[in-house]
């Protein structure tokens, strides 16, 4: 962080965020950094306002300016995803309001291990297995996670040493949440059966995959400059050039093009189906994808936006 900047510290009231708040409150004055604690009240549990107020009070006692933001949590993607979206939207809103350089969160090595295991279970590819980055961007807001190499036991010890009273979220004991099952059952079982150090090993795996992904991204950007060009209502890619690349790079380019141009994510099966237009093309027609269509025209693989008329036509043709 640059001297004189402002940062937002996300403080839920749990041990991780309180330990983070204490560390930031100690270090920020040395760099003339203004640190503002923001507690998001999701209003999902009885007494949430009181919990948020207590978290803000503890942050204030540490010397941070404190705010509480109440949000409405939607239903898209399930309760965890919806709460996360609402939380980051609120944090980003305050960050923009005060021109903060970043939002700092208290994610730990344990959170990273859980994220990697969940990604592995879902089979969602290397992107999920990379876990969380120390620094990333979300909707234009810089997110910094300085505790990703720190265990949860250390944050609890830090709170005890500083006489801070962490809030124990009852949701952390509810087995209906996949992350809770990973935390309370899966990781302990792996530690018992395979020996200690599983969480650290998962975090190392995430770091190594992130390094690989960064190298791939550089290769993709260099390759795309040579083989991608704009087409009417979309974008086109040289099929022979795609075919000349290794499958891993070819698939990443396909996913990257769709994500960058149409802001959609492809599943592995969708990616492989598009790749067959490159490697096993025998005149097959267009492939419908989220937000777009892919088709082979001569030596070009074209991606074009799916219009409302196209979608309605597809639905009509598939109706019984």
Automatic annotation (TrEMBL):
User: Which reactions is this enzyme annotated as catalysing?
Assistant: cytidine(34) in tRNA(Ile2) + L-lysine + ATP = lysidine(34) in tRNA(Ile2) + AMP + diphosphate + H(+)
Q: Which NCBIfam families match?
A: lysidine_TilS_N
Q: What is the protein name given in its UniProt record?
A: tRNA(Ile)-lysidine synthase
Instruction: Report domain tRNA(Ile)-lysidine synthase substrate-binding positions.
Output: 239-301
Q: Where is the tRNA(Ile)-lysidine/2-thiocytidine synthase N-terminal domain?
A: 7-184
Task: Please give the CDD domains that the UniProt record associates with this protein.
Answer: TilS_N (cd01992)
UniProt main location, coarse:
cytoplasm
Q: Which family, according to UniProt?
A: Belongs to the tRNA(Ile)-lysidine synthase family.
Where does the chain bind ATP? 12-17
Location of this chain's protein in the cell: Cytoplasm
Q: What class of enzyme is it?
A: ligase
Query: What EC identifiers does the entry list?
Result: 6.3.4.19
User: What PANTHER family does the record tag this protein with?
Assistant: TRNA(ILE)-LYSIDINE SYNTHASE-RELATED (PTHR43033:SF1)
């Amino acid at each position: 962080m640059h001297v004189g900047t402002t940062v937002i510290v996300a403080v839920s009231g749990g041990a991780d965020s309180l330990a983070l708040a204490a560390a930031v409150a100690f270090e920020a004055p040395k760099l003339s950094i203004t640190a503002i604690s923001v507690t998001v009240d999701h209003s999902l549990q009885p007494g949430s306002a009181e919990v948020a107020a207590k978290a803000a009070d503890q942050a204030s006692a540490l010397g941070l300016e404190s705010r509480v933001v109440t949000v409405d949590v939607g239903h898209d993607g399930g309760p965890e995803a919806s709460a996360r979206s609402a939380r980051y939207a609120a944090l980003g809103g305050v960050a923009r309001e005060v021109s903060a350089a970043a939002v700092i969160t208290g994610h730990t090595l344990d959170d990273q291990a859980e994220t990697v295991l969940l990604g592995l279970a879902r089979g969602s590819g290397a992107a999920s297995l990379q876990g969380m980055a120390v620094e990333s961007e979300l909707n234009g807001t810089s997110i910094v996670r300085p505790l990703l190499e720190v265990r949860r036991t250390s944050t609890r010890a830090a709170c005890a040493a500083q006489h801070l009273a962490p809030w124990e979220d009852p949701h952390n004991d509810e087995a209906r949440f996949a992350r809770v099952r990973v935390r309370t059952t899966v990781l302990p079982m792996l530690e018992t059966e395979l020996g200690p150090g599983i969480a650290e090993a998962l975090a190392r795996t995430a770091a190594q995959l992130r390094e690989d992904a960064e190298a791939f991204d550089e290769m993709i950007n260099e390759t795309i400059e040579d083989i991608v060009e704009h087409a009417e209502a979309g974008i086109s890619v040289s099929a022979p050039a795609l075919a000349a690349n290794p499958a891993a790079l070819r698939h990443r380019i396909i996913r990257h093009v769709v994500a960058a141009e149409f802001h959609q994510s492809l599943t592995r099966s969708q990616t492989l189906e598009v790749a067959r237009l490159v490697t096993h093309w025998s005149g097959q027609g267009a492939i419908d994808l989220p937000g777009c269509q892919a088709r082979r025209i001569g030596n070009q693989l074209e991606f074009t936006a799916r219009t409302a008329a196209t979608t309605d036509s597809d639905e009509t043709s598939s109706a019984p």
